[in-house]
Specification:
The complex is a heterodimer of chains A (295) and B (267). Chain A has 295 residues and is an alpha/beta fold. Chain A is built from ten helices and 13 strands. Classes of the chains: A alpha/beta (295), B mainly alpha (267).
């Protein structure tokens, strides 16, 4: 299968600070990939390079087979982007925003109007279609911004922290929308700070830190790397007192429980599968150690 | 040199038909103009107030026969254009701030057309404001003597001046970085008409100031409008006026293009 995104040794520095230190990333056509990483890991910079907003210092990046440096025109013709700040026109109404963008995506007047109507309804903005965006709440702006990315179904869609600022219901609806796009063949590369979001949506997760890919794999693969079950001790009001990762063996579990017993803390014990949070914490801790020993 | 060419996984959307971007962005900016009436009111009310002030408060002291209005109107028209065009800097800076410019830049369009939208709507807004100013001027005693051909020439020159100064403000907006800063820089430019023959003849000024007033772009433009509408001597003023407008326009367009690209690689 051909690759929708192909990044090799991509480097970018801003004023002496290296943000991307040679990233390699391959995304299969039609898959949903989540970029995870702490703040400042370079997620947004990578998205900005792939969407032709920022020029890389070195390496190559191709989107749908088009080089971002040599053929940015064609790249722009195959992508959709929703960035972190809601890039909508405050003076126009929601409907006018969508119709304007529809025209710029190549729809004629009638098509743009029809598409606007559908999307406003789909994103729960039907009642506010004729209100100026200035009067919209943060979540409504965010939904309008996302609706713009859905005007035409782009072969490759970039979403930079798409659900930040959305209420839980809108979040679930957006997830559905992204899954539908994924199923229809659109390649989605999204960044997120929510591990459950990556877990729920992504076919593959790419964890980046320090400008490099630290680890990547399917959510199940990543969880497996952290080892076995985690033993938690919770207090009377369900607050977490301690958690001990184990290797998943019977003796490992027994050691963990003995340790809790010896600490004489009151509470109930639960055993759970490792979450992506555990992966995230252990991997970022490893990355930090690596940087510390290097410097 | 060999390059590994990857198979293309998608066909890019075709380029838009010629003029689609421009028409869309002009429509957008005109809606902005109508919906932000403060900019329009500022562009009309301030020059009208200044004209009334100069005519009725200072005018009697400058020329006691009440004919000062005939002298001051061309200057007021340019002042008006300056006020009106200044809001373009703020509009452009705001587009950068909100991130909507970045969105346009990731689409297969000539994002430069965003500026065309701002410039054309500024031109329309300012020509309307100029019309209002001339109307009020006539009501308070402005008696131009130009024939229709001279009127058309004068309005064309005013239009050219608005175009040049609007492009300059658009470039300032790109360079400023924030809408507040754009507003501040723009304000400085609005003082230019005061250091010209707009309000008093240049030969009444101190010698050092005369040199500045005589050699800055506003003076020949004002003298040309005055010559066309009031039949004062034209001399070589029209050539100087056109030259200045063309020069400002070229500098502003080139500077704007450079700033546009620089902002593009900013982050």
């Amino acid at each position: 299968m051909a690759n929708a995104i192909d990044v090799r040794g991509l480097r970018k520095s801003f004023g002496g600070t290296e943000v991307l230190a040679g990233i390699d990333l391959v995304v299969e056509s039609g898959s949903i990939v989540a970029l995870l990483g702490p703040n400042g890991a370079g997620k947004t910079t990578l998205i900005n390079i792939l969407s032709t907003l920022v020029k890389p210092d070195g390496g190559t990046a191709k989107v749908a087979g088009f080089d971002v440096l040599r053929d940015p025109e064609s790249v722009r013709g195959v992508i959709g982007l929703t960035g972190q700040s809601a890039a909508v026109d405050e003076v126009l109404t929601g409907d006018e925003n969508l119709r304007m963008m529809g025209r710029l995506f190549g729809l004629d007047r009638g098509e743009a109007a029809a598409r606007s109507r559908d999307l406003l309804a789909q994103f729960g903005l039907g009642d506010s279609a004729r209100k100026r965006v200035k009067a919209y709440s943060g979540g409504m702006r965010r939904r309008l911004d996302l609706a713009i990315s859905f005007i035409v179904t782009p072969p490759v869609l970039f979403l930079d922290e798409p659900t930040t600022g959305l209420d839980p219901r809108s979040r679930l609806e957006l997830w559905d929308g992204i899954r539908t796009l994924g199923a229809s063949g659109t390649t989605v590369l999204l960044t997120t700070q929510y591990l459950d979001e990556a877990d729920q949506l992504a076919d593959r997760i790419v964890l980046i830190g320090g400008g490099r890919v630290v680890v990547e794999g399917t959510p199940a693969e990543l969880k497996a790397t952290t080892g076995g079950e985690v033993v938690e001790l919770r207090g009377a009001s369900d607050e977490l007192i301690r958690e001990i990762p184990t290797d998943g063996t019977v003796s490992g579990l027994r050691r963990a429980i003995d340790e809790l017993d010896a600490s004489e803390a009151e509470g109930t014990i639960t055993i759970r599968k490792p979450s992506l949070d555990d992966v995230f914490m252990s991997v970022t801790a490893e990355a930090r150690e690596l940087i510390d020993t290097k410097g | 040199m060999t390059t590994i060419s990857l198979p293309r996984t998608a066909v890019p959307r075709p380029r838009l038909a010629l003029g689609t971007e421009e028409a869309t962005f002009i429509a957008r900016s005109l809606i902005h103009t109508i919906r932000t009436p403060d900019a329009l009111i500022m562009a009309v009310a301030l020059p009208v107030m200044l004209m009334l002030m100069f005519t009725f408060i200072f005018g009697g002291a400058i020329e006691s026969d009440g004919s000062y209005v005939n002298y001051v109107v061309p200057g007021i028209i340019l002042l008006c254009a300056g006020f009106g065009a200044a809001s373009t800097a703020v509009d452009v800076a705001r587009d950068l701030e909100t991130g909507i410019m970045d969105r346009f830049r990731t689409m297969r369009i000539r994002s430069w057309a965003v500026l065309t939208g701002h410039v054309v709507s500024s031109l329309v807004r300012n020509l309307v404001a100029t019309g209002v100013v001339i109307g009020v001027a006539v009501a308070v005693g402005f008696r131009p003597v130009g024939n229709p051909a001279e009127w058309i020439a004068a309005i064309a020159l005013i239009g050219l001046y608005i175009l040049a100064i609007t492009y300059l403000y658009a470039a300032i907006g790109l360079a400023a970085g924030s809408s507040e800063a754009a507003n501040g820089y723009g304000f400085i430019l609005m003082f230019a008409p005061y250091l010209s023959s707009a309000f008093v003849p240049v030969d009444t000024m101190p010698t050092w100031l005369q040199w500045i007033a005589q050699n800055q772009p506003i003076t020949p433009i004002i003298e040309t409008i005055r010559g066309l509408l009031m039949h004062t001597p034209l001399g070589n003023e029209p050539a100087l006026a056109l030259g200045w407008c063309a020069l400002i326009l070229v500098i502003a367009v080139v500077w704007g293009a450079i700033m546009f690209r620089r902002k593009a690689g900013r982050r």
